[in-house]
Amino acid sequence: MKKRTNKLRSHCPVNYGLEAFGDRWALLILRDIVFRGKRTYGEFLKSEEGFATNILASRLDHLIENGILQREGHETDGRKDIYSLTEKGLDLIPLLFEMVLWSAKYDSRSEAGRIIRLVELIRKDNRKISEKVIEQVKRGEAIVPEYLS
Amino acid sequence: MKKRTNKLRSHCPVNYGLEAFGDRWALLILRDIVFRGKRTYGEFLKSEEGFATNILASRLDHLIENGILQREGHETDGRKDIYSLTEKGLDLIPLLFEMVLWSAKYDSRSEAGRIIRLVELIRKDNRKISEKVIEQVKRGEAIVPEYLS
DNA sequence: ATAATTCACTTGCATATTGCAAGTAACAAC
DNA sequence: GTTGTTACTTGCAATATGCAAGTGAATTAT
Questions:
Q1: Tens digit of pLDDT per residue, chain A (149 long)?
Q2: Can you give the distance from the CA of residue A62 to the C1' of nucleotide D30 in angstroms?
Q3: What is the number of CB-based contacts under 8 A between chain A and chain B?
Q4: DSSP letter string, B58-102
Q5: A84 is in which domain, residue-wise?
Q6: Of B33-37, B55-59, B138-142, which gets the smallest average pLDDT?
Q7: How distant is the Cα of B104 from the closest Cα of chain A, in angstroms?
Q8: Is A22–B17 a contact, with Cβ atoms under 8 angstroms apart?
Q9: Does residue A61 approach strand D to less than 7 Å at its CB?
Q10: Is residue A5 in a domain?
């Protein structure tokens, strides 16, 4: 992916977002934090899409550089780091949710079928459910279990 | 970009979206249709981010293959094609708007500063303003002029 | 105390994508 | 019929992707 060189292609808001998280992997990391409560490199590695180790490392760094993720050492295991969303990252939850809505509508085989209740809540009031989920994620919770059908 | 081979990495809704439009150029095309009323290859080419001709062609094809864009011949000029959003593509407007909100908040130099009224309307009720804008875009209108400060 | 294992990467390299510059075919203008 | 425009395609160099193997630090097992 294009390395950030302190010079954006433009300051258009869509472009800004694309440069911050717009590739085929970055938002999957955010998804795994929000939906599954994942926090470590090893957990992220175990996704159904199959991250390459160097790509995962590169994307984690990119998200940190863009202020969307933060990294801190593990409490008791010096080998591991813990990744979490910053405020800036948490504010991407409504956008993730719009993706869920869109895909639930247009992918007939979507796994969104397993969290129908969440999809309904997003459709009803994305802003409201996002605020609730932001609090959950701040506490380190995974939201999928609560909504599984 | 990864060529679609009739096999998605997964049917996760976030991944589905990423495979449909998740690279650094595709959503800029949608932006130019929605915000600027652009319709032709030549108009898309003239963006501040600077599309490469082969990349633009490739992304247009990809969006058409994914049912997000449609192409029809120009009424009177056989050299040109007219691109427009399908229903599936129009349904991405709320997501584009969430990107605008997010970037307006986190990019201190954001051009979103020029469409403050639209940003306020999105923040207030994204779904509502999106429905209005979808109708405008269906009529081929560009929304930026109406909201420029 | 030492050896084995785990975790988070890095590295080398083959393959794929990106994007520049030039070129092409169809069409419009003159 | 000639010239210019539009939407691309092509060739190729640069860059990114991703596989497989390897590395260092830390943990666990002995």
A1: 655 556 789 999 999 999 999 999 999 999 999 999 999 999 999 999 999 999 999 999 999 999 999 999 999 999 999 999 999 999 999 999 999 999 999 999 999 999 999 999 999 999 999 999 999 999 999 998 888 87
A2: 41
A3: 133
A4: HHHHHHHHTTSEEEEE-SS-TT-EEEEE-HHHHTTHHHHHHHHHH
A5: 13-147
A6: B138-142
A7: 7
A8: no
A9: no
A10: no
CATH of the domain at A127: 1.10.10.10
Report how many domains make up chain B. 1
Q: Residue B17 and residue A105: Cβ atoms within 8 Å?
A: no
Whether A2 is in a domain gets the answer no
> Which ipTM was obtained for this model?
0.93
Protein chain A, residues 62-121, with a C-beta closer than 7 Å to any atom of nucleic acid strand D: 76-79
Query: Helices in chain A by DSSP H: which ranges?
Result: 13-21, 26-36, 41-45, 53-65, 87-90, 93-106, 116-138, 144-147
In a domain, B35, yes or no: yes
Give the whole-angstrom CA distance, residue B13 versus residue A110.
6
Q: What residue in B sits closest to A110 (Cα-Cα)?
A: B11
Contacts of B17 in chain A (CB under 8 A): 99, 102-103
For strand C, give the nucleotides within 7 A of a protein CB: 6-12, 16-23, 26-29
Domain annotation covers residue B4: no
